[in-house]
Structure formats: structure tokens, C-alpha cells
Amino acid sequence: MKTEVALGIDVGGTFTKFGFVDRNANYLAEGFIETAKHEDIHSYLRELCKTTHEVLATIEDSVKLVGIGIGAPDGNFYKGTIEYAPNLPWHGIIPFTDMMEEYYPDLPIYLTNDANAAAIGEMIYGGAKGMKDFLVVTLGTGLGSGFVAHGKLIYGHDGFAGELGHVIVSPDGRQCSCGRKGCLETYVSATGVKRSAYKMMAKYTSPSPLRDIPFNEMDAKIISEAALAGDELARATFTYTGEMLGKALANVVAITSPEAIFLMGGLAKAGDLLFKPTRETMEKNMMKLFKSKVKLLPSQLDKNAAIYGAAALVWEERIN
Ligand SMILES: [Zn+2]
Cα–Cα distances in Å, from 146 out to 157, 193, 216, 267, 304? Predict the structure, then answer.
């Protein structure tokens, strides 16, 4: 009997990666195409579907494709559209799943934003197996989040629920890419950490190798490596980042009362550097009712998390 597989597609600004994954998290084949070179969505989809068909052909003797899941920035689950994504080459509202049906006419195709896909991936394949109430916070260039309540992802009225990155944590604070000021992601994200490193340089006088790095060459990885090597400024930067995140999470807990909060992505790999101040600040600011009840955990999906998340959309819909 053939193994049922889902095709998980992670649409990113530079590359689109995909993989064929079965219900038990076996990763059977994979591939990628360049996103950035296709200004025309039609030529992009043509290449994407041609490539996925070719990779599928290499395993087709032993598998049966049962559905396609897509994680994309600014993806709308209800409509299968990508809407005004600033980091993708296509403008306006793209009817992505409708257009893809031309190439995969008989299969269910689901699309959601990348952080929502990550949350479903965590539930189907990762550390949230068996949990009904949790959230996943993805820490990349920006901050994304997916909220699960009663075992279902919260999409909201229009399909865009769960924008924790754009909760205002500092009125009139840092300018955000969304046009407003003081959003959480301007503090807690790879770019936020970089901005905070310079704040710490101005605040303290301690010597640090970070002071010799020009702004355009600085990144979160350099700061976390410096912190791990014991650099005081870099450590202060992570403490500040954790405090901003911890306060925001204490507020989130008051609204959704989750069993666990998972942190995923580049910054989460800094481990205790980020987890410790976040956990401490979260507990300190939490209502008594919730204290010591909410687990703050690293994601159990590591490599190819976004593809697992996208594939998990298919299994999630088959179960429900
Ligand atoms: Zn914002």
C-alpha cells in the first residue's frame, strides 16, 4: 500500500522550499525554487508546480499525494490568498490556491500565514502534540504568532488573527514596518535585537567588540555569539529583549490562558540567554491566577519547521 503524503510549501521572499511529508513526520523528498526572480506570479507558479511534480515523480511508486499545504507571509486561510505581502515580489491580492488548482486540480490545497502553519506543525509533529491551548511565537526578521484554542487555530473574523508582533508595547516607541510605533516586533525579532544592541551601547560605557561593528554588518547572530562569550553589552541586549517579550507574554496569558508558549526561530536558538529573562519577566508580571502554570518551551520542530507546518495543514484538515 502506498504511503499517504502531504506536500508542504514554504513561500519565502528569497526562496520557496517544499517537502513531501507523511503523517508520521517522515520527510520523503524535497526541493526549492527561487521566489525573488519571478515578478510574474504566473511564471512563478509554473516553475513551482513543474518542480514539485518532478520531485514527486521520483517517489511516486511508493507514495500517494493527498493534499497541499502552503505557509506564506500575509496568507489568508479563508480565501487562499496572499494579501499585500511586502517581502514577496507580487503586489496586491494573489488568489494563490485558486491559481494552483490549475496544476493540481483534484487535490485539496490549503494556505495560511507562516506563523499559523508553524503552530499547526507544532501540534501535529512537535512539542504541542496532545495540547489544546498553546501558542507559537516565531522569531525571525519579524515576530509572528499562531494561537491554538480548544485544539483549533484562531483565524479570527477575517483570517488574520494572532498578530502578536504588532501589539504596541511601548507607546510612541520604535518605528515599525507596519507604519505604527512601538510594536513588539521592533524589540523582539532579529532586527529588534540589533536595534537594542545600539541602545545598550549608548546606555553603558563598558567595552565590547560589538562597538567596532558597523550597523549594516551587525546581526542577531553576532550579538548572540558575543553574549555566549560573556560580553556584557550583548548580554544586556538579550536581557532587555527577554523583558520586553516576557511582559507581552504575561498579557497574552491573561487573554488566552495557554498551557504552553513555544518559541521558534533564530533568536530562540540563543537558549537561556533569551528564555531566562523572558520566563522571569513573564512570571513577575503575570496575574497570580496564572503564575507558575504556563510552560515556556523551545519549539520541537527545528530543521524544515516551516515545511512541516505547511504539510501539517493537510493532516489537520483531514482529522477535522
Ligand atoms: Zn507594527
Answer: 15, 21, 31, 17, 17
